[in-house]
Amino acid sequence: MSEVATLQLIGLMIVGSGTLILLLIRAQFARVIGFVGIVLGLFTLVALSVPQMASLPPIEEKFDIATVKTPTDMAAIGQKIFFSKGQCALCHTIGPSESARCPDLKGIGAKLSREFLFESLTQPQAYIYLDYRHGGQPKEYPARMPYINKNPIGLSKNEILSVIAFLQQMSGEPISVNVAELEVPGQTLVAPVKVAQSGPVDVVQAH
Amino acid sequence: MQQQGGWIQRLLRAVKGHGGTLSGLLWAVGLLSLPALAFGADVAPAAATEYRDIPYIGSRNLVWVVAQLHLLLAGFVLGVPIFAWLCEVVAWKTGEKRYDKLAKEFTKLLTSAYATTALFGGILLFLLISFYPKLMNYLTDIFFPSFIVYCLLFLVETATLYLYWYGWDAMQDGGKKKFHIFLGFMLNFFAFFIMIVPNSWATFQASPVVLAEGSDLARAWAATWNPTWWPVNIHRLIANVVLGGYICGAYAGIRYLSARNAEERDHYDWMGYVGNFIGVFGLLPLPFAGYWLMREVYQYNQQMGITLMGGFLSWLFILQAMLIGVLFLGSNYYFWLGITYRIPGSELKYRKPMLSMLLILLLCLGVWMTPHSLVASLEEARKMGGTHHPLLGVFGVMSAKMTVSNLMILVTFMSFIMYWRAGKEETAGWAKAAKAVMNSLLVLAGIAVVVLGVWGYFVPAIVRINYFSTSQVLIVLFVMLTITPLTALLLKSAKTTTEMVWGKMPPRAGYALVLNAVMVILLMTLMGYARSSSRVHWHVYGVMRDSSPYAFSPALGYAAAIMALNTFIFCMITAFIFWVATMSDKAKAPHS
Predict the structure, then answer these.
(1) Inter-chain residue contact A91 with B306, CB threshold 8 Å
(2) Reported ipTM
(3) Could you give the CA distance from residue B310 to residue B51 in angstroms, rounded to a whole number?
């Protein structure tokens, strides 16, 4: 039996017990306990009936440079990062959407150079895209682009290059990112921000 | 996609085939061995240990339950003094002794409730130090100065509580009463700081501000004054008043149901009325504080805001809507029962408005609970052209939800005013004009809220969030802040046409009060889960990552089971506190 089914069974049993108490017992305090049981059981059953989504920590895409042979391999890794650790899909869509909080990324790899894409990810306030969808004066999008190379997202340079490769491939463009550009871990300091591993942390988190 | 704690299965598997005795024994051994686990689980140096765990239950679940109970008890012991002090001031100002008696009755609970809260706080601290040494070490390094402030606050709060409670009878007359009321104010003043200091630790985890350099004090102060600190402080302060009011209501409801004579019925009926009144009084502005908090979350970090409102936690807000909706319905229902049973002759007069209000509340609740994306099979989704229903999809967006939540507040406010005015006849010369102004204000506000809500569909989100939603909130607040003093002024010279009859409420009124209290407690547990889960896999968002096996946030169903468990335990603890505190009174009371 799955965990959801087990919890549903427990919930039903609590609601049933509460109903029996209300029907059979006359002591007021016991009846109130039965009533509270019914309410809590029903609440749990309703919560179990909505989509059960857990939030898992992002899977670290391991860069084994030896296994990344072609830019297409990089794009495949970039695609995974786009939908997981990078959290890009939280705000961006690939294709038009009325409710989009950020620019649509369909064909973005063809519209922008790889240098511009890199800058948009690492210095998002350098050039701000405006929303022209509603006519009149263009407006800023409601969601502000975060620094992708800093925490809490904190993509490494290799990961950012892979996302760019994915965006270019998705737009039908030749991938201009080269495998040779990937940094071998241990040779170069990749992460621009220190992450707390132990002891006091000296990171400035701006408002 | 899905990952659950799995502890239920593990526990069931573990005890399978060994009967209930073994199951009970395992629980008992598990609980008794907790201190041993805390102190002796690891022989390695403390600095090297990042996490510890316990079998079957899991460290996260245990901390979850204890932290939640501590928070609920803290809400209770911070909410009750506000409630008691307000009652004492009313008694002092109006000369109605029963308010003073009510205030004293609730203050009596504080001594035992305070000790229980501190006990759970102590357990929580030990568990955190044992299970999360790395995180606690980090937080201690930053917040060390505020820990000392917190201890000092506890000392003065305890001293003030002793003076306030033990001095009650001795400080009843003249200047002494004034001093007693001042003590009550100071009790709440210190309690407020006792609440906001730990709030800074919790909010820091969600929206950290970390200085790389500076003195201990400067670093602690920067971390304390983080972006979500004040919104949470205000939200919790109001929520504590609501909790205090509704728990008083629930206590009165239970005592009313088991009352043995007319005197008890009268007293507890009246107490239920006061509890519900204060609960609703706090409930009305509470959504605005919540709105401010969400705005600050979005301002601080868009991803966190989207995770909450549009990400994996989006369904949580449907549950929240359900709970708030039931709370609004329960509170209104109690008002309507009061009008029907306590004010003879009012039933016919107010039946139509009550039915209209019920209809509006149900419609609003239906809209509020409409999800943005529907749970649909592939076939159904194809037919709809996506997960958005062609008709219902219109109600699933924020513009609709903001509109209906404001309308529900307006309707509840109308119930509140209707109940207040029932059985009275205004005698002031300007009464007619005042009533016309109040009615027009209510109607115009309702229309304005709807118009802004519909208009919100046709403007960019940023315009809707920054101007339209804010305007809706301000309009409703304006109505409340205008009509409340106007009604109070009007009723000052009003003539009572029908005296309120106490003790005639049907038993379902008692259950409505219990339901309201359970809804508030569930809401607090639900939003606690939301606040904690919004940090996703971070202990301190963006600064210290959670690398424990519990770095995931469980799905809603599993979380709801823990919330229900916490609510039940809290209700039982509160019932125990009430029982202990009133034991001597029962012994003294003459047997009927």
Answers:
(1) yes
(2) 0.85
(3) 31
